[in-house]
Amino acid sequence: MAAAGPEIERLIALLAKLPGLGPRSARRAALALLKRREQLLLPLTEAMADAGARVRACQTCGALDTCDPCAVCSDGSRDGRLICVVEEVGALWALERGGSFRGRYHVLGGLLSALDGVGPEALRVEELIARVVDTDVREVILALPATVDGQTTAHYLADRLSGAANAISVTMLARGVPVGGELDWLDDGTIAQALRARRPA
């Protein structure tokens, strides 16, 4: 006999599909929502319905927003000559939180992965090439993860971009010791990268 009705089990099953939530965490989240129906469940239901109806992908960069083009692409104070390429929208949001980048973005929608069968045609690569060729872009910053798939994708994009436009500069984010980081807590790859990217003191 089930411990909860089908409606609750469906809620738990859907919550368990979210990143970072397993079956136990999903049960705790569902219980918290149901116990605080007025404060959490109903406002969340309304917010999700509103987001589902209004949020869409920007046709220019691939970011999520309620307008198309998105707020970043339509911001005239941004430097359109700089494009920062990211894997997913979450990375864009992280860069925006820092507030130090004032260019535009391009969301790939994933990374190249031979193991997962993800090729260039599954990503927004051609859209990036078209943006570079059709506009006065001077620099493309590849802000991709320091993983095998991230580096593979970065090398592929660098090759494609250098062939598409000669005057363009393709750069990657610096990697190394984070601010406040202690060497004995860092992995070997991060330390090696920090040594390769050293600069004058």
Secondary structure layout plus pairing:
Elements: H1 6-15, H2 23-35, H3 37-54, E1 56-57, E2 64-65, E3 82-86, H4 89-98, E4 104-107, H5 125-134, E5 139-142, H6 148-164, E6 169-172, H7 188-196
Describe, in plain words, how this protein is organized in 3D:
The structure is a single chain. By secondary structure, the chain is an alpha/beta fold. The chain has two domains: 6-54, Helicase, Ruva Protein, domain 3; 77-172, 3-Layer(aba) Sandwich (Dna Topoisomerase Vi A Subunit, Chain: A, domain 2). Helix content is 43%, strand content 10%. The protein has seven helices and six strands, in the order αααβββαβαβαβα. The strands form two sheets. The protein has a four-stranded parallel sheet. β1 and β2 (64-65) form a beta hairpin. The longest helix is centred in the first third of the chain and has 18 residues, at 37-54.
Summarize the structure.
The protein has 201 residues and is α/β, with parallel strands linked by helices.
Across the major sheet, the strand order is 4-3-5-6
Number of domains: 2
CATH 2nd-level architecture of the largest domain = 3-Layer(aba) Sandwich
The main pleated sheet reads as:
4 strands, parallel
- Give the CA-CA distance, first to last residue: 68 Å
The number of strands is 6
Helix content: 40-55%
